[in-house]
Design a protein that fits this description.
Distance between the termini: 18 Å
CATH superfamily: CinA-like
Structural class: alpha/beta
Order of helices and strands: HEHEHHHEEEH
């Protein structure tokens, strides 16, 4: 995680905020464990339910309700929304299923991570990806999704800084 700090603090210095659902604060804990994180980490929110995603992150109810808040569109809205909420340059977000859900016809755990980067013109560059963890137990899925999201952030920063 030292590499994250180094990449965030290079010129131009960037700030980060995190919006988590499925990962329940695991990304925030990883970032917060870095000595000097306060130099780039503005904070985060765990918005587990739809109402909180709509209220705090600006997620579209019309987009989220039919998919139980689990889609590329929703996670991308969460990533942009957390940038707006905290005024950060980067927003990292997660949403998904940590275990099967008969109600939503989900047979295997899967999730989405999303990353938003506020451009100089005020717009956003956003990327997202789906990750799957067939047969993995709930807490392992949460840890793996957090790891995948942080790895995507590092990959993005390496590309931006090279």
């Amino acid at each position: 995680m030292i590499q994250l700090k180094e990449l965030m603090l290079r010129s131009p210095r960037l700030t980060l905020a995190v919006a988590e659902s499925l990962t329940c604060g695991r990304i925030q804990a990883r970032v917060g464990a870095i000595s000097g994180a306060s130099n780039f980490f503005l904070g985060g929110i765990t918005a587990y339910q739809l109402e909180q995603k709509v209220k705090h992150l600006g997620v579209s109810r019309a987009a989220a309700e039919p998919v139980n808040s689990v889609s590329a569109e929703v996670v991308e809205q969460m990533a942009r929304g957390v940038c707006a909420l905290f005024g950060s340059d980067l927003g990292l977000a997660t949403t998904g299923y940590a275990e099967p859900s008969a109600e939503w016809s989900v047979a295997q755990p899967f999730a989405w991570w999303g990353l938003a980067h506020r451009r100089a013109d005020g717009g956003f560059t956003v990327r997202s990806a789906r990750v799957e963890y067939p047969g993995a137990p709930r807490t392992q899925v949460q840890e793996e999704v957090a790891e995948a999201a942080v790895a995507a952030l590092l990959e993005f920063l390496r590309g931006l800084r090279s």
